[in-house]
Protein: DNA repair protein RadA
Amino acid sequence: MAKSSGGYTCTECGWQTSKWVGRCGECQQWGTVAEQARAGASLARTTRAAAPAAGREARPITELQGDAVRHRQTGIGELDRVLGGGVVPGAAILFSGEPGVGKSTLLLDAAARAASTGARVLYASGEESTGQIRMRAERTGAMHDTLYLASETDLATVLGHIETVDPALVIVDSVQTMASDQVDGGAGGPAQVREVAAALIRTAKERGTPVILVGHVTKDGSVAGPRLLEHLVDVVCHFEGDRHTSLRFLRTLKNRYGPTDEVGCFEMTDRGISEVPDPSGLFLSRPGAPVSGTCATVAMEGRRALPVEVQALVAKSATPNPRRVTSGVDQSRVAMILAVLERRFGARLHDQDVYVSTVGGVKLAEPAADLAIALAVLSAIADHPLPHDLAAFGEISLAGEVRPVASGAQRSSEAARLGYVRVVDASVETLDRARRKAGF
Structure:
């Protein structure tokens, strides 16, 4: 799209216009169009070539040493898994997550583990005082002499602390609370966030010191501030979890040094956050007697296979419009499965209330859980419990077919490891056998 030579620019994407508008014509963001400080003249300037500084000349890739940029472990196995093996020197890492999910607690633990090796770590917070951070450190056992705390909101002062302490790791909590006096606007504005992030990332690259930035999120779960922030950093991690459960998941949305399909599992306790290397038993219930309406499946969280139990309850509806209540599964997906069961397999559900839920608060978004949901519903209708050692996974189509899903061998292997000897994978005859067994 051609850009006009006006005096207003979008702080998100750089789109320009000759007059102020409330909504950007390029990225469609509201309230991001601001007046340029220097209109016209700065756009007409031509950047001249300059000689590179000594020691920074372009060199053949085969002559560069790769040992200096190896991953360095943080001491937290689940965090190292998500980062691709650890923290890379000079890397800029962005941590995002909802308020109260445990971002600061996890990073304080990572800072303490790095300080326990004798390395200097700087934890700069613009949201808490040093006394408040110390209280949390005493509660979680993160007290070390080489862990330095600073409560600052000025970017220049934070950079001064980095020069003075000379840390091996820097944590800034959070980037939206920092501000520079060289940029107009308050802390958290697009211009301030862009300047603060650029300065800290430049410091990380020049000194070879990894910098971890904590970022706030908006109502829709995306990182607050300009989209450019996610492009500037090397790694973007999202920390998520339900406040009503202790389980937390750490996912990578971007990683220049490793895979982006790894998931780390943590548990929030009174002593802080502890990693969960094997979370298989968290999403399963083992009642003494078999219960109808339950079926186990194996979900893939990144490269990790997690057995999850799906529970269903079917009851006679007392209203003209039967209820469809779900927890942990996609409601529209469940509605589709119920329609397939009623139309293709003769299950009577039009006058029944159906409740479908997962155990442990885990969320199933992949279609591989379709078969387990269908078997749980059929088991609830017939009031016939499925065997304890049965696990099922597969995608159900509108035609009633069960389609194969990805990572079938890994799912079957994980189910067998936990004692599920009857693994029902994707096959066309699966629901037919379940229908006949249920008496339809």
